């Protein structure tokens, strides 16, 4: 908490007026990060015309870049802290799991629209497509911090190559 208080420039009493401790602060920051990401997927799901899968992946990588740079704090690092907290606290695990199930639902709805628009084959399972995208999200964040950002075009190219290789 001392590091957080120093970074905010606020007095100790001011910080403790809003947060009782580190756990409560991490929860609040994680909630903010989750709300922003949920907003991205809601916008993508409701956009007209339907964004293509490539546009959606580009929006995801752009959002990660926006959340990792130029702010006073990096929301993608906060997400990583939230995942760690979810491993030790059942309440955080439940909230985080609920968030990812909600995002999965948004992405499933978007994949239905992709299938209707002809971006996916008629027999494509929207839930499977959503699962791939939800699974990619944490990997993109981890890669951003441990290796470097993944350009959208490289991710799209790799997914296309894997798709072609797995359709036999």
Characterize the structure shown.
The structure is a single chain. The protein has one domain (23-165): Tetracycline Repressor, domain 2 (Orthogonal Bundle). Helix 3 packs across helix 5 (75-88), helix 5 packs across helix 6 (90-117) and helix 6 (90-117) packs across helix 7. Helices cover 79% and strands 0% of the residues. It contains eight helices and no strands. The chain is mainly α and 168 residues long.
Question: What does the secondary structure layout of this molecule look like, with pairings?
Answer:
Layout: H1 2-8, H2 12-18, H3 22-46, H4 53-68, H5 75-88, H6 90-117, H7 126-146, H8 152-165
Quick recap:
The protein is an all-alpha fold and 168 residues long. It has helices spanning 2-8, 12-18, 22-46, 53-68, 75-88, 90-117, 126-146, 152-165.
- Name given to the CATH architecture: Orthogonal Bundle
Structural class: mainly alpha
**Which H/E pattern describes the elements?**
HHHHHHHH
Gap between N and C termini, in Å?
54 Å
Largest sheet: none
Number of helices: 8
Helix content: over 70%
What is the top-level CATH class? Mainly Alpha
Overall number of domains: 1
Topology, number of strands: 0
Weakly predicted, low-confidence segments: none
Q: In CATH terms, what is the fold-level topology?
A: Tetracycline Repressor, domain 2
Mean pLDDT: 85
> What is the molecular shape?
elongated
Strand content: under 5%
